[in-house]
C-alpha cells in the first residue's frame, strides 16, 4: 500500500510538471488526493506528496487570484493543522505549509510562521508524542526560509524578511535546538536538534544575504546579538555527546563562518574562524573535543562550550565521555587556576539555571566531580564556590526520587567534605543527615562516602573527633537493611561523635479553631435563642 501511495504521488507530480490541461474538477480531485497522501505515516509518502503539492501550485494555481491561492493552500493547511489532534497525521500538512510558493508565503508569512512555531516548540504536556510533528515543523521553517530568501527582490521584501528572521524565526529555532525530550526510544529530542541546526544555518545564511544588500545592524541595543547567540547554540552542540549531532554542528558552524557579511554582528569572529578553519578531518574523530578547546577562552561562547562539554564528560564512562573528560582536564591544567575556577563557576551557574532538569544536572555534577578528582579543584580553596556547589547539590536532593541524581549529588557533597571550614562542617553534616534517606541504596551510598572520609582524617582531626566510635558505627550498622530505629539511633550517635547538633524535627502544630456559635447548625443554640 505504501508503494502505491508513493507511485500515485509521483504520477500526480509528473502530470503537474507536464502542465497537462485539465478541467477544474480534475484539479480539485488531484488536490484532494495529495492532501489525503499527506496524512500517511510514511515519511517517503509525505515527501512525494509535498513535491506533488509544489508542482500543483506552480502548474494550476499560479494563474488564479492570489487571495484564492492563499485560501486553497496556506489557509487550508493551517486550518487542517489546527483541527488535527493526532500529531502523527499532521506531519505532511506541516511540510506542505512550509513548502508553499513564494508568492503565497509573502502575504501571510507571519501567520504561517506562527502556525509552524506552535508545532515546533515543546508544549510540555506530552513532548514525546509530539516529537515527529516538531521535526516536521522545523523542516517547514527551513523550507519557508529558503523560499523567502531566494525570492527577496525588493527593498520592502528584504526588510520584511530581516524583521521576520530577527523577531520570530531565529528565536524560535533557539528554543527548538534546546529540545532534550527523552522517552523509551532514547534522546528523541536529538531529532529536533539535528533539524534545528540546519534551520539555523539556513536562517543565518538568509540573514547574511540580506545584510549584504542592506548594511544595517539590528543588534544595537547593547545586548549580545542574536547571531552570536545562535552560533553559541551550535558550538554547544559541537561538543555534545551524540556523534551525529556533534559532527553535524561542527560542519554547520564552519559554513556559517564562511558568510563574511555576518562578521560585523558576530563576536570573536576572527578567533572563531581560526578555530574552525582547519580541514574537516577533525569532525570525524574524537579529536573534535581537543580541537575546540580554544573556545573556552572566548567569553561570549564559554558557557555554551562548557555546557556541551559537561554533557559529554558527565556521561556513563564510554569512550566519548573519557575523551571529553581528558580534553576538559587538559584545558584547565593548561589555563591554570584562573581557568579552573572559571570553568567551575560556569558549571555552578548551569546547575542553578537547570535546577530539577536531571538530564543536565546529573552530567554537570559528574563533571564537577572530575574537576575535584583529576584537576585538583579542592586546592583552589574558593569558599564561595564550594558553598554555592553545596547549596545546589543539597537542594537537588530535596524531595528527589531519582536514585542516580541522589547518588551523584552525594558524591559531590562527599568531595566538598575535603574542603576547610566552614564548608567541611556543612557538607559533613549533610552527609550524615543523608543516612536516613528513604532509599536503602542511598543510605548505603552515604555511609560509604562517610567511611572513606573518616579513614582519610589527619591526626589533628582524629584528636578533635571521636573517630574510633564513628568508624565502628559506620561499619557495623546495616544502613540499607537494618531496622529504622537502629539507623536513626546510629545517626544521632554519629552527630555526637563530631560534636554536631542533630536536625530538629519540626512538628506541625495543630491550629485550634474556635467553633463559632451558628444558630443554623447548632440545635442547642437554636433552642437557647428561642428562650426554652
Automatic annotation (TrEMBL):
Source species, domain of life: Eukaryota
Record-level Gene Ontology MF annotations: beta-tubulin binding; GTPase activator activity
One Pfam family from the record: TFCD_C
One biological process term in Gene Ontology: post-chaperonin tubulin folding pathway
Annotated ranges, domain Tubulin-folding cofactor D C-terminal: 230-389
Name the record gives this protein: Tubulin-folding cofactor D C-terminal domain-containing protein
Species annotation: Chloropicon primus
